[in-house]
Specification:
With about 700 residues, this protein is an alpha+beta fold. Helix content is about 45%, strand content about 20%.
């Protein structure tokens, strides 16, 4: 009996063990990878909005649906940029459904079927509908196109019906957002006291005489700051130092450059193409089929490279010219003669003295007089380009006024276009040209012409061969394998000076790239991977024409701000406070006029004067717009002198020498409206931030894409 009892006991344990093993077999993979439903599947949660988790699979399914719709409509797969926009669209839809809609429902906001019909085909057509249904002949919205579309709706393909349903849904959501923002915008209010404060800030003026000792006048070497002081400052000013999830890296690049063998092979290819281009009958088709970069068959001077332009006069019909180098590309040309265009092309420069048409007559007269004076100087021998750089008031000034090439097709304002194309040859136009923008001094640098040149161009770019790519990859892989720790990585950089090392500092989590790397999302994802710690070395990444091996050197967290995250800024602020104490202690023992105080203080002390400054736009001579100093100046009585006080970048002793109060104003409507308008412009942003904050939005998309 005892033996049987033992067997029964053991069999129970065995059965339990088998049951547990089966459970672990079925769900164990998920349990140990963090994907189990028993533990919330945190690794699959792409975000959280309003307390609701968004699973990666559900999110990606919606992205896939948009991708499929895009491919059907565009006839091609979306690129990386389009895909990123689709992910953003899906995320915004989740925000609407899980955060915004709760706010709409709590206020009883809705869009009725009748209202939606009115938006699509009624009296109040939505701007998006107007944009979609325009008459191709007039370019204007035509309601008959909408009605015809809706009549044929049931006979359309399912994909088109689905697209329209999504469009209507977005119309309703946009209208809800407009209603909601409108309600909150109407709630903004500016009090009389606020309007009065704004009026006084813009109108009241003071003259000030002040002593200023900038912090930089005290040598940094005399100030010693301990980390404990930085910690103390950070703890007292947490709101000024918001944390952010970032990573810092060092990375070595291995550029892929065509080898000598690649270059020799390329030249042989160019020679072969030149021979074939010379004998081909359809030279334009041949050039197009064999070019890496397509160029116009009939080209104006503006479209022809400078190196080619200089040889146009000596080219003969059917001749082959080149190769001409442009960066890593080479071009060969077959000349086929000229053709006259219906439009003329010209190149010109200008100096614009701005005086918009809304300006007063006195402003226009002053601008015209200045322009005429500059024109006279140029006629007297002054350099047009130098005068443009000195007096030009638009974006062409730094280029000596160069407007580049343009045609008489309305691309320039009419008076300027008429003056330039009405001028023969090259040189300075004799008079000023007036437009709605002001007054122009004009120089034609290349005469107008309507000649187009028939040039069949074969443009080829030197590219590395597969053997070259493989060799560079081998070097990068060998480096990564041999230097897989921080110490080895840094030692290799010191030893081999030929290695190209760069830094990426404080890269945000969602960045698509950093520095000059435009498509480096794979490197950013590696840097933020949970398994990547400071000191980790990556495998090899390919990025355009180079291979990259990275070392993670730093990490910051929005939830755990450390002094190293803001060390430079903290150091500057703490040093500023310590320097302020030193300066004020020294100034505390001196007296007399500001000039006498400066003399007693010694090197570094400045005495300056400013007149008619306002609180809204006041700027001090050396200290700039220091709000503490400006406030102190307005707070003093005329003739009163302050005690030494700390400003943003130095220590002041301020004296009010004249005060001009704001005149009494009974009607503050203008200032009220201005303040209300500014508040209304910020409403949309504040609403978005408040709703996201209230919904406690957690965005983990950067961990998945």
């Amino acid at each position: 009996m005892a033996l049987i009892t033992k067997i029964r006991e053991k069999s129970g344990i065995a059965a339990a063990a088998i049951a547990i093993s089966l459970i672990l077999f079925l769900v164990g993979g998920d349990l140990f990878t963090g994907n189990s439903r028993f533990f919330g599947g945190s690794r699959n949660v792409i975000g959280e909005i309003g307390g609701e988790s968004i699973q990666y699979q559900d999110f990606q399914k919606k992205v896939d649906e948009l991708t499929q719709n895009y491919s059907q409509q565009a006839g091609k797969s979306p690129g990386e940029q389009e895909t990123a926009q689709m992910r953003e669209q899906v995320w915004n839809q989740y925000l609407l459904d899980l955060a915004y809609n709760k706010e709409y429902e709590s206020l009883g906001l809705s869009v009725s079927p009748k209202e939606l019909v009115d938006m699509v085909q009624g009296e109040n057509i939505d701007p998006q509908v107007r944009q979609q249904f325009t008459n191709p002949q007039t370019g204007q919205f035509d309601k008959t196109y909408v009605i015809q579309f809706l009549k044929n709706f049931k006979t359309m393909a399912p994909a088109q019906q689905q697209a329209w349903a999504s469009f209507e849904k977005s119309l309703a959501q946009n209208r809800l957002r407009t209603k909601y923002e409108g309600l909150l915008r109407m709630s903004t209010y500016t009090t009389n006291a606020e309007a009065q404060k704004e009026y006084v800030a813009q109108t009241a003026k003071v003259n000030a005489h002040y002593l200023y000792v900038p912090f930089y006048s005290v040598a940094d070497s005399t100030i010693k700051v301990a980390d404990s002081q930085l910690e103390d400052y950070l703890s007292k000013h947490k709101d000024a130092f918001k944390g952010q999830n970032t990573r810092s890296i060092q990375y070595v690049t291995f550029p892929v450059i065509p080898s000598k063998i690649d270059t020799a092979s390329f030249y042989n290819d160019i020679k072969r193409l030149a021979k074939e281009l010379a004998i081909t009958k359809n030279d334009s088709a041949f050039a197009m089929m064999n070019s890496d970069v397509k160029t116009p068959y009939y080209a104006t001077l503006a479209e022809i490279p400078e190196t080619v332009k200089g040889q146009l006069g000596s080219m003969t019909m059917g001749g082959i010219y080149g190769p001409f180098k442009n960066g890593m590309s080479y071009s060969i040309y077959k000349y086929g003669g000229v053709q006259k265009d219906t439009l003329f092309t010209v190149r010109a420069s200008h100096i614009l003295i701005q005086a918009p048409k809304t300006s007063s007559d006195s402003v226009k007269a002053a601008a015209r007089k200045r322009a005429e004076g500059i024109l006279a100087q140029i006629k007297g021998g002054a350099s047009f380009e130098a005068m443009a750089q000195q007096f030009g008031t638009d974006g062409t000034a730094q280029q000596g006024g160069d407007l580049g090439y343009f045609k008489n097709n309305g691309s320039m304002v009419k008076p300027l276009e008429n003056a330039i194309f009405g001028f023969s040859g090259t040189g300075l136009l004799p008079g000023i040209v007036e437009t709605d923008f002001g007054y122009h001094i004009v120089k034609v640098t290349e005469a107008k012409t309507n000649t187009r040149y028939k040039l069949a161009a074969v443009n080829r770019t030197i590219a590395p061969s597969q053997a070259t790519l493989d060799e560079v990859l081998r070097k990068a892989d060998a480096f990564a394998s041999a230097n897989d720790t921080k110490d080895k990585f840094e030692a290799a950089l010191k030893k081999d000076k030929s290695l190209i090392m760069l830094r990426g500092d404080k890269i945000p989590e969602g960045s698509a790239g950093f520095n000059n790397l435009q498509n480096a999302r794979d490197i950013v994802r590696w840097a933020f991977n949970d398994d990547t710690k400071v000191g980790a070395v990556s495998t090899v990444f390919q990025n355009e024409n180079q291979y990259i091996v990275a070392l993670e050197t730093g990490s910051t967290s929005k939830d755990n701000v450390k002094i190293d995250d803001f060390r430079d800024e903290l150091m500057a602020r703490v040093k500023g406070e310590m320097k302020a104490e030193t300066i004020m202690k020294k100034l505390g023992g001196v007296s007399g006029t500001l000039e006498q105080m400066a003399q007693k203080y010694g090197a570094g002390a400045l005495v300056e004067t400013v007149n008619d400054i306002t609180l809204a736009q006041g700027v001090l001579t050396s200290a700039g717009a220091d709000p503490t100093a400006l406030g102190k100046a307005f707070g003093l009585k005329v003739g009163q002198k302050s005690k030494p006080f700390k400003g943003d970048a130095g220590v002041f002793v301020m004296e009010n020498t004249k005060s001009t109060p704001a005149p009494a104003m009974a009607d503050l409507t203008m200032y009220k409206n201005s303040a209300k308008m500014m508040a209304a412009q910020r409403t949309s942003y504040y609403i978005n931030e408040a709703i996201k904050d209230n919904a406690k939005v957690v965005d983990n998309r950067a961990k998945f894409y």
